[in-house]
Protein backbone atom coordinates (compact mmCIF):
# COMPACT_ATOMS: atom_id res chain seq x y z
CA UNK A 1 0.00 0.00 0.00
CA UNK A 2 1.32 3.45 -0.89
CA UNK A 3 2.08 6.00 1.83
CA UNK A 4 -0.71 8.35 0.62
CA UNK A 5 -3.22 5.49 0.93
CA UNK A 6 -1.98 4.58 4.41
CA UNK A 7 -2.34 8.19 5.53
CA UNK A 8 -5.77 8.46 3.95
CA UNK A 9 -7.13 5.34 5.66
CA UNK A 10 -5.55 6.34 8.97
CA UNK A 11 -7.22 9.75 8.80
CA UNK A 12 -10.66 8.16 8.35
CA UNK A 13 -10.13 5.62 11.15
CA UNK A 14 -11.40 7.85 13.95
CA UNK A 15 -10.83 7.06 17.61
CA UNK A 16 -13.79 6.81 19.97
CA UNK A 17 -12.41 8.51 23.06
CA UNK A 18 -15.05 7.05 25.34
CA UNK A 19 -15.88 10.59 26.46
CA UNK A 20 -19.53 11.51 26.50
CA UNK A 21 -21.39 14.71 27.19
CA UNK A 22 -24.75 15.00 25.53
CA UNK A 23 -22.83 14.17 22.32
CA UNK A 24 -20.55 11.44 20.99
CA UNK A 25 -16.86 12.42 20.88
CA UNK A 26 -14.25 11.17 18.39
CA UNK A 27 -10.73 12.26 17.46
CA UNK A 28 -8.76 11.99 14.23
CA UNK A 29 -5.37 13.03 12.86
CA UNK A 30 -4.67 15.78 10.35
CA UNK A 31 -2.89 14.87 7.13
CA UNK A 32 0.13 16.90 6.08
CA UNK A 33 -0.47 19.58 3.46
CA UNK A 34 2.20 21.81 1.89
CA UNK A 35 0.46 25.05 2.91
CA UNK A 36 -0.11 23.93 6.52
CA UNK A 37 -3.93 24.05 6.38
CA UNK A 38 -6.13 20.98 6.74
CA UNK A 39 -7.57 19.79 3.41
CA UNK A 40 -11.31 20.52 3.40
CA UNK A 41 -12.16 17.13 1.92
CA UNK A 42 -10.37 15.45 4.81
CA UNK A 43 -12.37 17.17 7.55
CA UNK A 44 -15.60 16.68 5.56
CA UNK A 45 -14.98 12.94 5.27
CA UNK A 46 -13.93 12.63 8.92
CA UNK A 47 -17.03 14.52 10.10
CA UNK A 48 -19.13 12.17 8.02
CA UNK A 49 -17.40 9.09 9.45
CA UNK A 50 -18.04 10.40 12.98
CA UNK A 51 -21.75 10.77 12.20
CA UNK A 52 -21.84 7.31 10.60
CA UNK A 53 -20.54 5.78 13.83
CA UNK A 54 -23.74 6.87 15.61
CA UNK A 55 -26.44 5.57 13.24
CA UNK A 56 -27.74 2.01 12.74
CA UNK A 57 -25.78 -0.07 10.21
CA UNK A 58 -28.78 -0.28 7.86
CA UNK A 59 -29.02 3.52 7.45
CA UNK A 60 -26.74 5.23 4.95
CA UNK A 61 -25.95 8.86 4.30
CA UNK A 62 -27.96 10.45 1.50
CA UNK A 63 -27.20 14.15 2.07
CA UNK A 64 -24.70 16.39 3.80
CA UNK A 65 -24.41 20.17 4.20
CA UNK A 66 -21.27 21.62 5.74
CA UNK A 67 -19.78 25.04 6.43
CA UNK A 68 -16.04 25.64 6.66
CA UNK A 69 -15.63 28.07 9.56
CA UNK A 70 -11.87 28.37 10.14
CA UNK A 71 -8.73 26.98 8.51
CA UNK A 72 -7.48 23.85 10.25
CA UNK A 73 -3.88 23.33 11.38
CA UNK A 74 -2.21 20.16 10.02
CA UNK A 75 0.05 20.04 13.09
CA UNK A 76 -2.90 19.31 15.39
CA UNK A 77 -5.47 16.50 15.67
CA UNK A 78 -9.17 17.23 15.30
CA UNK A 79 -11.97 16.53 17.78
CA UNK A 80 -15.42 15.66 16.44
CA UNK A 81 -18.64 15.96 18.44
CA UNK A 82 -21.81 14.36 17.09
CA UNK A 83 -25.28 15.48 18.14
CA UNK A 84 -27.93 12.79 17.56
CA UNK A 85 -30.54 15.31 16.45
CA UNK A 86 -33.27 12.91 15.31
CA UNK A 87 -34.04 9.25 14.71
CA UNK A 88 -37.29 8.54 12.88
CA UNK A 89 -38.83 5.46 11.33
CA UNK A 90 -36.82 5.81 8.11
CA UNK A 91 -34.42 8.74 8.58
CA UNK A 92 -31.76 9.80 11.08
CA UNK A 93 -30.19 13.26 11.31
CA UNK A 94 -26.81 14.08 12.83
CA UNK A 95 -24.85 17.27 13.38
CA UNK A 96 -21.05 17.03 13.54
CA UNK A 97 -18.79 19.82 14.74
CA UNK A 98 -15.05 19.58 14.09
CA UNK A 99 -12.83 21.38 16.64
CA UNK A 100 -9.25 22.49 17.04
CA UNK A 101 -8.09 24.50 20.06
CA UNK A 102 -11.66 24.46 21.35
CA UNK A 103 -12.99 26.31 18.28
CA UNK A 104 -15.10 24.82 15.47
CA UNK A 105 -13.40 24.61 12.09
CA UNK A 106 -16.36 22.90 10.35
CA UNK A 107 -20.05 22.43 11.11
CA UNK A 108 -21.98 19.76 9.22
CA UNK A 109 -25.48 18.26 9.22
CA UNK A 110 -26.03 14.90 7.54
CA UNK A 111 -29.14 12.81 6.92
CA UNK A 112 -29.29 9.01 6.77
CA UNK A 113 -32.00 6.71 5.41
CA UNK A 114 -32.67 3.00 5.44
CA UNK A 115 -33.04 1.19 2.10
CA UNK A 116 -36.38 1.90 0.43
CA UNK A 117 -38.10 1.43 -2.92
CA UNK A 118 -39.28 4.38 -4.99
CA UNK A 119 -39.26 6.20 -8.31
CA UNK A 120 -36.04 5.86 -10.29
CA UNK A 121 -34.32 8.07 -12.87
CA UNK A 122 -31.06 9.96 -13.27
CA UNK A 123 -29.33 12.48 -15.51
CA UNK A 124 -27.29 10.75 -18.21
CA UNK A 125 -23.52 10.93 -18.23
CA UNK A 126 -21.93 12.83 -21.13
CA UNK A 127 -20.91 10.30 -23.75
CA UNK A 128 -18.21 12.22 -25.63
CA UNK A 129 -15.39 12.24 -23.07
CA UNK A 130 -12.08 10.34 -23.32
CA UNK A 131 -11.40 7.36 -21.08
CA UNK A 132 -9.01 7.97 -18.16
CA UNK A 133 -6.32 5.72 -19.67
CA UNK A 134 -5.92 8.24 -22.51
CA UNK A 135 -5.31 11.15 -20.12
CA UNK A 136 -2.14 12.11 -18.22
CA UNK A 137 -2.04 11.67 -14.48
CA UNK A 138 -0.97 14.49 -12.16
CA UNK A 139 2.33 12.64 -11.66
CA UNK A 140 2.98 12.64 -15.41
CA UNK A 141 2.08 16.32 -15.69
CA UNK A 142 4.06 17.62 -12.72
CA UNK A 143 6.95 15.18 -12.18
CA UNK A 144 9.53 17.65 -13.50
CA UNK A 145 8.65 20.48 -11.08
CA UNK A 146 10.61 20.74 -7.83
CA UNK A 147 8.10 22.48 -5.58
CA UNK A 148 6.31 21.23 -2.45
CA UNK A 149 2.82 21.85 -3.86
CA UNK A 150 3.67 20.23 -7.20
CA UNK A 151 5.16 17.20 -5.42
CA UNK A 152 2.03 16.89 -3.28
CA UNK A 153 -0.30 17.06 -6.30
CA UNK A 154 1.88 14.66 -8.26
CA UNK A 155 2.54 11.86 -5.78
CA UNK A 156 1.29 12.53 -2.25
CA UNK A 157 -2.49 12.56 -2.72
CA UNK A 158 -4.34 9.24 -2.24
CA UNK A 159 -6.28 9.76 -5.49
CA UNK A 160 -5.32 9.50 -9.15
CA UNK A 161 -6.93 12.55 -10.80
CA UNK A 162 -7.11 13.11 -14.57
CA UNK A 163 -8.68 16.17 -16.19
CA UNK A 164 -10.84 16.66 -19.26
CA UNK A 165 -9.85 18.56 -21.32
CA UNK A 166 -6.59 19.26 -19.42
CA UNK A 167 -5.47 20.19 -15.90
CA UNK A 168 -5.13 23.80 -14.76
CA UNK A 169 -2.21 23.31 -12.39
CA UNK A 170 0.18 25.52 -14.39
CA UNK A 171 -1.96 27.15 -17.11
CA UNK A 172 -5.40 27.02 -18.68
CA UNK A 173 -5.29 25.56 -22.16
CA UNK A 174 -8.02 25.99 -24.74
CA UNK A 175 -11.31 27.80 -24.35
CA UNK A 176 -12.07 29.51 -21.03
CA UNK A 177 -15.31 27.69 -20.25
CA UNK A 178 -17.06 27.16 -16.92
CA UNK A 179 -17.17 23.40 -17.44
CA UNK A 180 -14.77 20.50 -17.04
CA UNK A 181 -14.68 16.84 -16.06
CA UNK A 182 -12.33 14.87 -13.82
CA UNK A 183 -11.74 11.13 -13.68
CA UNK A 184 -10.68 10.00 -10.22
CA UNK A 185 -10.07 6.88 -8.13
CA UNK A 186 -7.97 5.91 -5.13
CA UNK A 187 -4.38 4.86 -5.80
CA UNK A 188 -5.08 1.43 -4.35
CA UNK A 189 -7.94 -0.84 -3.29
CA UNK A 190 -10.23 0.09 -0.40
CA UNK A 191 -11.91 -2.28 2.07
CA UNK A 192 -15.41 -3.40 1.13
CA UNK A 193 -17.09 -1.15 3.73
CA UNK A 194 -19.73 0.83 1.72
CA UNK A 195 -19.68 3.71 4.21
CA UNK A 196 -15.92 4.10 3.75
CA UNK A 197 -16.48 4.46 -0.01
CA UNK A 198 -19.16 7.09 0.62
CA UNK A 199 -16.80 9.04 2.88
CA UNK A 200 -13.98 8.68 0.35
CA UNK A 201 -16.23 10.16 -2.34
CA UNK A 202 -16.89 13.17 -0.10
CA UNK A 203 -13.13 13.50 0.47
CA UNK A 204 -12.32 13.54 -3.25
CA UNK A 205 -15.23 15.81 -4.18
CA UNK A 206 -13.37 18.78 -2.66
CA UNK A 207 -10.20 18.47 -4.77
CA UNK A 208 -11.31 20.15 -7.99
CA UNK A 209 -14.85 21.48 -7.49
CA UNK A 210 -13.73 25.16 -7.67
CA UNK A 211 -11.79 24.66 -10.89
CA UNK A 212 -14.69 25.44 -13.29
CA UNK A 213 -14.78 28.93 -11.74
CA UNK A 214 -11.07 29.34 -12.34
CA UNK A 215 -11.10 27.80 -15.84
CA UNK A 216 -13.84 30.21 -16.94
CA UNK A 217 -11.49 33.14 -16.23
CA UNK A 218 -8.21 31.57 -17.35
CA UNK A 219 -6.89 31.33 -13.79
CA UNK A 220 -4.46 28.48 -13.03
CA UNK A 221 -3.52 27.21 -9.58
CA UNK A 222 -0.04 28.66 -10.13
CA UNK A 223 -1.41 32.20 -10.64
CA UNK A 224 0.54 34.60 -8.43
CA UNK A 225 -1.47 35.79 -5.40
CA UNK A 226 -4.47 33.51 -6.06
CA UNK A 227 -6.51 32.74 -2.94
CA UNK A 228 -9.09 29.94 -2.99
CA UNK A 229 -10.97 28.67 0.07
CA UNK A 230 -14.07 26.51 0.41
CA UNK A 231 -16.95 28.25 2.19
CA UNK A 232 -19.62 25.55 2.18
CA UNK A 233 -20.13 22.12 0.67
CA UNK A 234 -23.28 20.15 -0.04
CA UNK A 235 -23.50 16.60 -1.31
CA UNK A 236 -26.27 14.13 -2.11
CA UNK A 237 -25.54 10.40 -2.47
CA UNK A 238 -27.97 8.75 -4.88
CA UNK A 239 -26.49 5.28 -5.37
CA UNK A 240 -23.56 3.24 -4.13
CA UNK A 241 -20.35 2.98 -6.13
CA UNK A 242 -16.78 1.97 -5.38
CA UNK A 243 -14.25 4.79 -5.24
CA UNK A 244 -11.28 2.49 -5.92
CA UNK A 245 -12.69 2.22 -9.45
CA UNK A 246 -12.79 5.13 -11.92
CA UNK A 247 -15.61 7.64 -11.39
CA UNK A 248 -16.29 10.70 -13.53
CA UNK A 249 -16.90 14.09 -11.88
CA UNK A 250 -18.63 16.44 -14.37
CA UNK A 251 -18.42 20.02 -13.10
CA UNK A 252 -19.98 23.40 -13.99
CA UNK A 253 -19.94 26.90 -12.53
CA UNK A 254 -23.22 28.82 -12.93
CA UNK A 255 -21.93 32.05 -11.35
CA UNK A 256 -19.00 33.98 -9.90
CA UNK A 257 -19.29 37.38 -8.21
CA UNK A 258 -18.07 39.36 -5.23
CA UNK A 259 -14.95 37.24 -4.73
CA UNK A 260 -17.06 34.06 -4.55
CA UNK A 261 -17.76 31.33 -7.07
CA UNK A 262 -20.40 28.61 -7.16
CA UNK A 263 -19.74 25.21 -8.69
CA UNK A 264 -21.88 22.11 -9.08
CA UNK A 265 -21.02 18.61 -10.16
CA UNK A 266 -22.35 15.15 -10.94
CA UNK A 267 -20.35 12.00 -10.15
CA UNK A 268 -20.88 8.90 -12.32
CA UNK A 269 -19.57 5.36 -12.43
CA UNK A 270 -17.66 4.45 -15.56
CA UNK A 271 -20.79 2.63 -16.71
CA UNK A 272 -22.82 5.87 -16.52
CA UNK A 273 -24.70 5.43 -13.24
CA UNK A 274 -25.17 8.69 -11.31
CA UNK A 275 -23.68 8.23 -7.83
CA UNK A 276 -23.81 11.71 -6.31
CA UNK A 277 -24.43 15.42 -6.83
CA UNK A 278 -22.18 18.08 -5.31
CA UNK A 279 -22.40 21.86 -4.85
CA UNK A 280 -19.86 24.20 -3.33
CA UNK A 281 -19.40 27.94 -2.95
CA UNK A 282 -15.86 29.13 -2.43
CA UNK A 283 -13.84 32.28 -2.07
CA UNK A 284 -11.85 32.92 -5.25
CA UNK A 285 -9.68 36.04 -5.18
CA UNK A 286 -7.38 36.98 -8.03
CA UNK A 287 -5.17 40.05 -7.41
CA UNK A 288 -5.47 41.47 -10.92
CA UNK A 289 -9.27 41.34 -10.68
CA UNK A 290 -9.38 42.78 -7.17
CA UNK A 291 -7.11 45.64 -8.19
CA UNK A 292 -9.46 46.56 -11.04
CA UNK A 293 -12.32 46.66 -8.56
CA UNK A 294 -14.58 44.17 -10.30
CA UNK A 295 -14.87 40.40 -10.81
CA UNK A 296 -16.29 40.23 -14.32
CA UNK A 297 -14.73 40.55 -17.75
CA UNK A 298 -11.95 42.98 -18.68
CA UNK A 299 -14.37 45.31 -20.47
CA UNK A 300 -17.15 47.23 -18.78
The rough form would be described as: globular
Provide the gyration radius in Å: 19 Å
Please tell me the CATH architecture of the largest domain by its name. Answer: Roll
Number of domains: 2
Secondary structure topology:
Elements: H1 3-12, E1 15-20, E2 24-28, H2 40-52, E3 59-68, E4 78-87, E5 91-100, E6 103-114, H3 138-142, H4 148-156, E7 159-164, E8 179-186, H5 194-204, H6 211-216, E9 227-237, E10 247-257, E11 260-269, E12 274-285, H7 287-292
Antiparallel strand pairs: 1-2, 2-4, 3-6, 3-9, 4-5, 5-6, 7-8, 8-10, 9-12, 10-11, 11-12
Walk me through this protein's architecture.
There is one protein chain. The protein is α+β, with helices and mostly antiparallel strands and 300 residues long. The protein has 2 domains: 1-115, Roll (Thiol Ester Dehydrase, Chain A), CATH 3.10.129.10; 130-300, Thiol Ester Dehydrase, Chain A. Helix content is 20%, strand content 37%. The protein has helices at 3-12, 40-52, 138-142, 148-156, 194-204, 211-216, 287-292; strands spanning 15-20, 24-28, 59-68, 78-87, 91-100, 103-114, 159-164, 179-186, 227-237, 247-257, 260-269, 274-285. It has a 12-stranded antiparallel β-sheet with strand order 1-2-4-5-6-3-9-12-11-10-8-7. Strand 1 and strand 2 form a beta hairpin. It is globular and about 50 Å long.
Describe, in short, the structure shown.
Strand 4 and strand 5 form a beta hairpin. It is built from 7 helices and 12 strands.
